[in-house]
Specification:
Elements (H helix, E strand, L loop, with lengths): L2 H11 L17 H12 L1 H7 E3 L2 H6 L7 E3 L6 E2 L4 E2 L17 H16 L6
Antiparallel strand pairs: 1-2, 3-4
């Protein structure tokens, strides 16, 4: 994917009228991370599907009123601070449901994250 294609994709997906986009050449780094990034760039439609809005209350705390597209790992589906569902089905701020009445979801998320800390990701 060319630099101009990446900029065009970012402009298309970003909620701001004039998003801050810059590019840089990567000359080295963690090989696993570089492979992960390369896979996303080879499949822009797949990358686009992985984007979802960051927690609306977390962004509001920082004075941001519009949605911020975030690439969150699939295992992060809850904002534990604000008790909001931010999983893949929450494609908009309105889709971020309050899960306060369901403490079992928060407990399950905590247990899942603890398991990820105890075991390599490929084992989970």
């Amino acid at each position: 994917m060319s630099q101009s294609e990446i900029v065009a994709l970012a402009k298309e997906e970003h909620p701001y009228e004039v998003p801050g986009i810059s590019t840089r050449t990567i000359t080295g780094g963690n090989p696993d991370y570089l492979t992960w990034i390369a896979q996303d760039l080879r499949d822009p439609d797949g990358f686009r599907q992985l984007l979802r809005p960051a927690c609306r209350r977390c962004t509001a705390r920082r004075g941001i009123t519009g949605p911020i597209a975030s690439r969150l790992p699939p295992h992060l589906t809850v904002c534990r601070r604000h008790r909001l569902w931010t999983g893949p089905a929450a494609r908009t701020h309105a889709g971020q449901l309050d899960i306060s009445p369901f403490p079992e979801i928060l407990r399950a998320q905590r247990r899942h994250l603890a398991e990820l800390d105890d075991h390599p990701r490929q084992d989970v």
